[in-house]
Write a structure and sequence with these properties.
heterodimer; A: 341 residues; mainly alpha; two-stranded antiparallel ribbon; two-stranded antiparallel sheet; 4 strands; 73% helix; extended; B: 292 residues
Chain lengths: 341, 292
């Protein structure tokens, strides 16, 4: 295909991506280097019969005018990155010196908003991704072994948790585990504790969020593995059986290696999606117990005063983490492409 | 199935049991909420006895019937959910149309170009796909405020199309790779330009792939919360942020049921979509994977 034709074919798509993905990233980086204007303060001297007093007041008009004139704010350099709400360099350094032992240091770290959000996001990603892969694989193996006529309805029902809007799916689960809902009541009965409430307990909330995450992404892993299972070479399986391989050994040494490339694919997609965990926390109203990086940005943007700069700094840090997470995949894709040529 | 590969009874029992558990886990929450949406709040959340939600004791005393449509009435008429539904409809139709138009052109070009920059474009699309949308939203707000673009449906539509592009590109790229190159090349030998070849030869055979990709574009627009919640004014809200706003403001008695009714209303179209397009969804999910 000629260069010029190629250009015109991809032009609309590339224009959109540059305008609404690439430029916003530049905009976020710029914004993160500026901070809000401080209020303009004027000193007024009031002179009365008993001498003069000085009072300070906020000049609303001047403040508004300044914010109007320079909406970005004033130059702050890396100040926002290092403040308490983000990397908190001073606090971390202080805690490192002053704390006695790792547990104490860890506790201080977890009280800092950015690090606690980071901890939740990473824990969530690290637990939900493998759980999804394992359970999705098991469901695929099981569905593959049921009668052919049952497969259609099974796939239909299995797709539900994934296709349904994340916010909605999480809400449905949340209402069920509410202390007055059916699962909540069942949990109270199982734990034999009538006051047990998932809403009130941080560990239970984390577990619920991860259960939701796994529940909603099992279908994806299942469907991909199921498609992969249809292409397993039956000759190899039979050969393994003649050689005396047991059921488990056949899965371990024939099926799993065959599905390995699919696992990489699922892991990649799941890493990207789990790292941005967001909707379930809104639905579960769990902001007090678990904050992810996305939630941190969203809260900065959504409050009474929009903390654009703070949100921008967190966004940049998130983007850097995504890049680190993705780098092995990018390097691999790059090498594969080199081989093809 | 031959005798040798037949499974022993114990394995079959475990497999069936596991499958039954998974199916209940996958489907039961939806059935339960559908059932509960026709009850009053006291039954949907019953403190006294969970069987109340089955028997509808309070629903009977409060409304005089086993089932009540109060939640739906409250959500759709009183809280004007129909307006949100209309907005969602507009957003979804526009997003799907625009992103498929741009996506097919670019996806076709990418699948036919042997040059390195095509690969780079795909690689960048992959990076963009990994960006959490909320990080981008924080980049939109200030410029949109400055240029008075904030709050309109059209802005949101364009943003959703753009966020959708990377995925659309990858998917259509792999679909077009499966259409043999000889097809359009022979048309060009016969004197067509590249665009004519695309128009007369490729477009008639591309529909299965385009429909599948369209389904996923639809899902993205329909399910989105971050972009629609941050970029739309209250009047222009779509369904998903509207549900979220039910949770925040209306905690008075009975209003939770508005949210429940709204949740069921949002789920229903998706349910129908799976009924009619199950095959396409499954093929779409596996398309990227099987290619590797």
């Amino acid at each position: 295909m000629k260069h010029k034709t190629f250009f015109w074919f991809v032009f609309p798509s590339v224009l959109l991506m540059i305008a609404f993905i690439a430029l916003p990233i530049v905009s976020v980086i710029t914004q993160s280097l500026y901070s809000e204007h401080e209020q303009v303060v004027v000193v007024v001297e009031n002179c009365g019969p008993f001498g003069c007093t000085e009072s300070t007041s906020v000049d609303q008009e001047a403040t508004a005018a300044l914010r109007e004139a320079e909406p970005l704010g004033r130059w702050a350099g890396f100040g926002i990155y290092t403040d308490r709400n983000h990397l908190a360099i001073d606090e971390v350094a202080g805690a490192w010196v002053n704390s006695d032992g790792m547990p104490d240091f860890w506790r201080t770290l977890m009280n800092l908003p950015f690090y606690s959000a980071m901890a939740f996001t990473l824990t969530y990603t690290a637990i939900v991704t493998p759980m999804t892969i394992i359970l999705g694989f098991v469901v695929a193996i099981v569905v593959n072994s049921v009668a052919r006529s049952l497969r259609g309805p099974t796939i239909f029902l299995s797709l539900l948790p994934m296709i349904v809007t994340p916010l909605v799916g999480a809400l449905i689960l949340f209402w069920m585990v509410d202390a007055r809902g059916i699962l909540g009541t069942a949990l109270q009965w199982l734990a034999n504790d009538p006051n047990l409430s998932v809403k009130a307990s941080t560990p239970l909330m984390w577990i619920m969020l991860m259960v939701y995450g796994t529940w909603s992404s099992i279908p994806f892993a299942f469907v991909v593995y199921y498609a992969g299972l249809q292409t397993v070479n039956t000759d190899t399986l039979e050969a393994a059986m003649i050689d005396g391989a047991s059921r488990w050994e056949r899965i371990r040494y024939v099926v799993i290696p065959h599905l390995m490339p699919l696992t990489t694919f699922i892991a990649l997609i799941q890493l990207m999606d789990n790292f941005r965990v967001f909707e379930p926390i809104i639905s579960f109203q769990a902001q007090a117990h678990a904050r992810s990086l996305s939630i941190a940005i969203f809260q900065d943007l959504g409050g009474e005063t929009r903390l654009l700069s703070s949100a921008a700094a967190t966004s940049v840090l998130t983007i850097i983490f995504v890049a680190i997470l993705l780098s092995p995949v990018l390097v691999r894709t790059w090498r594969d492409f080199g081989k093809q040529r | 199935m031959s005798v040798a590969t037949r499974r022993p009874l114990s394995v079959r029992l475990i497999a069936t049991g596991f499958l039954a558990i998974w199916l209940i886990m996958a489907a039961f929450p939806f059935l339960w909420t559908l059932w509960g949406s026709f009850k009053v709040e006291g039954d949907f959340f019953s403190k006294a006895d969970w069987l109340n939600s089955l028997r509808g004791t309070l629903t009977l005393t409060e409304t005089g019937g086993q089932f009540t449509g109060d939640g739906y009435y409250g959500a759709w008429i009183q809280e004007e959910f129909w307006r949100a539904a209309l907005n969602t409809l507009i957003v979804c139709i526009c997003v799907v149309t625009i992103s498929l138009t741009c996506g097919t052109l670019a996806g076709y070009a990418l699948s036919r170009s042997p040059y390195r920059y095509a690969f780079w474009l795909l690689l960048f699309a992959l990076i963009f796909r990994a960006m959490p949308p909320v990080t981008l939203v924080s980049g939109y707000l200030l410029p949109f405020f400055e240029w008075n673009l904030w709050g309109h449906l059209s802005t949101t539509i364009i943003v959703l199309v753009a966020i959708n592009q990377p995925f659309t590109l990858w998917m259509l790229h792999s679909f077009f790779k499966n259409i043999p190159q000889d097809l359009d090349e022979s048309a060009m030998v016969d004197g067509c330009t590249r665009f004519q070849a695309f128009r007369h030869v490729i477009i008639p055979v591309m529909w299965p792939g385009v429909i599948t990709t369209g389904l996923f574009s639809f899902l993205l627009a329909y399910n989105d919360f971050v972009v629609t919640a941050m970029l739309l004014t209250k009047e222009n809200q779509t369904m998903v942020p509207k549900i979220a706003s039910f949770l925040g403001t209306t905690q008075t008695k009975g209003n939770v049921m508005f949210a429940v009714a709204a949740v069921v209303s949002v789920t229903a179209p998706l349910f129908l979509m799976i009924v009619f397009f199950q095959r396409q969804i499954v093929s779409g999910l596996t398309a990227g994977a099987v290619k590797g």
